[in-house]
Amino acid sequence: MTEQTGDGSAGDADYGTIGTGYAGYRRPDPRIAAAIERALGDAVTVVNVGAGAGSYESTDRQVTPVEPSRTMRDQRPAHRAPAVAATAEELPFPDRAFDAAMTTFSVHQWSDLAAGLRELRRVTRGPVAVLTCDPALVRDFWLYEYAPAVLDAEARRYPAPRRIAELLGGQATVEPVPIPLDCVDGFNEAYYGRPERLLEPGARQACSAWSFVEPALAEEYVARLRHDLETGRWDERFGALRRQPTYDGSLVLVRAVP
Known about the structure:
Blueprint: H1 15-18, H2 22-25, H3 30-40, E1 45-49, E2 62-66, H4 70-74, E3 100-104, H5 113-122, E4 128-133, H6 135-138, H7 148-157, H8 161-168, E5 171-176, E6 179-180, H9 201-205, H10 215-231, H11 233-238, E7 246-247, E8 251-257
């Protein structure tokens, strides 16, 4: 049985604490959404596991969202289907119930990766699409020089894409997903050319890795970044990123078909 908090959050992050205001920062970026749509192919029925507030759910498909956190379920827009309160490891659906399955920025939260991916494969007839980050690339981002413990937490939590592909079985691919400069989905790397956004408490709270760092240390990290922005040091070193249209970071899309 997956251990849950009072909010219902499963895994190692309590979205009852960090999930408030999440929907304001973590909105679906249309270019990332297009990659997910391609991965889902012609599927009509889709299960979205770890659905959160509804990011990346297609309005042209019959989507069944699954989300254990009550805080996240409560932030779903009224036009989205209400989410089923369940975890990836114990999906309450019969075998082969859906044409496809998807999960975005979620697998690193699961308490049992193998069990969750087995469940996705069990309930799905066709492709499974997993948007996640490659832990081998997480520390390549400039933020590592300012907030190393935050990205260490990310790298520690994310499973390797190859491992995800192996567990899903079948024919699997791992596709890098370029991050646009004006990305509206506020994960850490989305601010590669807009570092000032990471000075906002809400932006950091919407990235769960920050919650694994003591508040005093996180404030030190923020102060260091603020200083370098105010003095121009950040721009001396990384300013070209402000004009770079896309960033090839750790974001990847794993797709597996039976």
